[in-house]
Amino acid sequence: MATTEEHLMDWLRDAHAMEKQAIESIENQIDRLKSYPQLQSWVRDHVDASRRQRELIETCIKRRGGNVSTLKDIAMGLFGNMQEATSLFMQDEVLKNVIADYAFKHYEIASYTSLRSAAEGAADAETTRVCDDILREEEALAGRLLPLLPEVTLQYVNRDLAGSSAKR
Ligand SMILES: [Fe+2]
Known about the structure:
Blueprint: H1 4-27, H2 37-63, H3 78-85, H4 93-121, H5 125-145, H6 148-161
Helix pairs in contact: 1-2, 1-4, 2-5, 3-4, 4-5, 4-6
This protein binds fe (ii) ion (FE2).
């Protein structure tokens, strides 16, 4: 049976892999969003936040005596799953990505809520504080993305009608 400390270490490693995936799956959207500047700026902020969060989680792993050189960051396939879940918009890459990004943000919020509770259970005040900071950042990013969706949808439709490549 694993101890609270062992669970916490496993879940910190999962969080590290999740942030790596957040960076890799979304970074490649930036160049394709030139026609959607607000969305492009959100994606940039999301990638910057994910880089900082990955560093913070790595610091927690080190402080708890974990070996960061063995972080495998197994591809979790999370983002791909969320894109599949939005297959309604399969032809519409921009919309599909925004919806998957929003779903991913909420996956992160749930994960850090759980991780925070494990950190508290292990009496690790510093990791608890780091989770609180990350949670605030994730919630702010999710909150900024949803209001962009109606405008991006209409912009997509109008660009499609005008015959421009709505996918860019
Ligand atoms: Fe994150």
